[in-house]
Amino acid sequence: MTAARQDAPVTAAQPAEGVAVTCHRLIHIYPTATGDVVALSGVDLSIAAGEMLALVGPSGSGKSTLVAILGGLMQPSAGRVHVGDHELSRLPAKGLAALRGATVGTVLQGAERNLLPYLSLSRNIWLAQRAVARAARRRLDPPEAILELVGLAGAGARRVGDLTPGQRQRAALAQGLAAGPGLLLVDEPTSQLDVAGRDEVLAALTTVNAQRGTTVVVVTHDGEVGAQLGRAVTIRDGRVGAEGRDGRDFAVVAGDGTIQLPPETSAAFPAGTLFEVDHTDQSITLRAVATPSSRPGNGGVTNVDDPPDQAV
Ligand SMILES: Nc1ncnc2c1ncn2[C@@H]1O[C@H](COP(=O)(O)OP(=O)(O)OP(=O)(O)O)[C@@H](O)[C@H]1O
């Protein structure tokens, strides 16, 4: 393979603009030797083309599973998921592979996992571009331009080991952007970084989004990342539990009409609590009239005559 061939621009099949994402009652179950694990239990989510969004939530709530499905790494057990024009649960393996190459870029947690340490950054990106070049229809940016986009102009000849942790993470972003995806999925890009490194990564993501229109989804435990991206969707128990927008927190109505109570109310209103529901055009009032009891023989409900009379 000559140097001239390696530097030649390569091409991919998909447009570079951001793509929209929709999930409708998405369910995912992992079969295991000890029984099935329900990782997603009905995710309803719409992400506009060109939007930036954080996925937050406790460990084990289903964030990585959702990202793996959006990234075409596996298919959901049930429900529908669209990425751009593609309905992923209907795509055959070949279609999913093409999606992974050109429509969706995934950056795994741990920058080093995305990059080959013995190659320069330019060569890493070039190799990722070659992997999708078979479906060639349009020119891709040269690796140097992608590095510039993430704030690493002139770093093409450097290797992973020469970089600071923040630079390494941005190099991983560049790798995910190699084929000009319409959707960039990034898993925990700031977990190993100090505040300066985190801000550089956020600046890089914002630049990518502003200049390319790329839809950006970031899995994070860092509330500040969610705040800066403007929209933070909380995944809780395998579904969308809440959403934060521009500093305000909201409950979200799921496709089946359910709303998750905030976790801090769980102790006061355990599963099985009965509520009276009053609503107007603008509000819903839930008034607890009975809480479940461990007392046998009463169908699991007590206190009907002695209601806690608490509204949420
Ligand atoms: N390959 C697997 N096989 C079986 N169960 C799995 C598998 N991957 C994840 N799970 C389970 O599915 C549920 C959701 O896991 P997932 O990794 O998607 O959550 P998460 O929110 O990304 O967690 P974290 O923040 O710790 O990465 C958990 O109960 C987890 O133990």
From TrEMBL:
InterPro entries membership: AAA+_ATPase, ABC_transporter-like_ATP-bd, ABC_transpr_LolD-like, P-loop_NTPase
Domain ABC transporter: 24-262
GO cellular component terms, A-Z: plasma membrane
Disordered: annotated segments: 290-312
Keywords from the UniProt entry: ATP-binding, Lipoprotein, Nucleotide-binding
Molecular functions (GO terms): ATP binding; ATP hydrolysis activity; transmembrane transporter activity
Top-rank taxon, per record: Bacteria
Protein name: ABC-type lipoprotein export system ATPase subunit
Organism ancestry: Bacteria, Bacillati, Actinomycetota, Actinomycetes, Micromonosporales
